[in-house]
Input
Amino acid sequence: MHAIDEVTIDATHAAVYEHGWQSWSPTTTYGIGDRPHRPVNERNRFLCYRPESNPSADVYWGEGLLAIDPGDGSGVRIYAVANATETVPSIHAEVKGNRIVVSSDGPVATTLDQGPGSLENALARWADGFAASVGVGEMRRAPTIWCSWYQYFTDVTEADMIENIDAIERLDLPVDVIQLDDGYQTAHGDWLTLTDRFGSLQGIADRIRSFGRRAGIWVAPFLVFPESELARRHPQWLIGGPDKPVHGGHNWNRDLFALDTTHPEAMEWIAEVFSTMHGWGYDFFKVDFVYAAALPGPRHQDMSPIAAYRSGMQQLREAMGDSYFLGCGAPILPTVGLVDAMRVSPDTEPQYLPAGGDLSQPSVSAAMLTGRGRAFQQGRFWINDPDDLIARPAVEGRKEWAEHVRRYGGLRGSSDRIADLDDWGLAVTRELLAESPVETFVSSGGS
Output
């Protein structure tokens, strides 16, 4: 780390904004003296924060973006990477009395924003400039979605899908896309091999499309289960190769490998997966856990991890044709300009508080914290996905969560078994899916 700035503050009114590495990394604004959110264990750090970084709670720490409001009316200082296509520096802010010393481990552009409004408005103005420099084009209209995940998780069956497809049609819910989530495949890596709970992905897509709706599907293309056919037959496709593959963390009760996006044969396989699914009628892809392609480690080609990640994402875009592309578990700044929509928070969950108090973990409270912290990205970087509405009676804080989706949801989805919704849950689901979300959450010149 090398010092890049020193800011005099009014400690009573000053604030520091930390931007996390990927979708699930806590992102919010702190008052001076507030303890920043940090992982409670190594598993969470690897999966939900930046694996290369391990900041203490004694400093504020942004990945590629950090902002300081000194609290004295002099303007907001924004420290950010100018170009996130090769490297993204970590930015560190240490409070020393009435000063904050800002350091970075790489090149950072410094902006003094003296425009009107709050720190959030200053971030929105910065985001306008960053998006323009990347070449973000016109936003595609976000479809409304029903998703299987938060009701069935990995136990979803074809019968579950058919039940909810038919219920959505019978109740005439304003759902554009019916999306199958995790649980159909035999293993991560073997995306075209189905469990015995499914007969045909094409058959599901045909049934959805027969009602005039669109078919969507979840894929985590850059994660590989060690027991998969892909790992067994093609260990050279993994980051690190057959001798020392790089693990992408521990989840689903197993260690995970990461796919090497610089290996031509590996990406030919992934392109085949997406083009095959697209040919079966799927034109909405939720692409998850993509941080794995940006993990450090030796690759088939000499390319920085971030460049390798971006190359992989660009190849996915080509393979899926004109499909709608929703990213999740994605490094935020390196993905700007590559997707239509982005999950900007951790998963929600029927539980209000996260396991172990770690605000990178699934919960209503974690999703609200970081969803608010990235609200300014809506309509600038992409369409913000705050995660799905879950409104059945078993959801803790369901009314608070519904209001969060109403205020911050650029992309809106539902993820309850339709038959489990009570009158309130069904009414709010219908209402929120029928509304038109705001195009940009905060105005660049607003107050």
Observations:
- The chain has two domains: 2-114, 145-434.
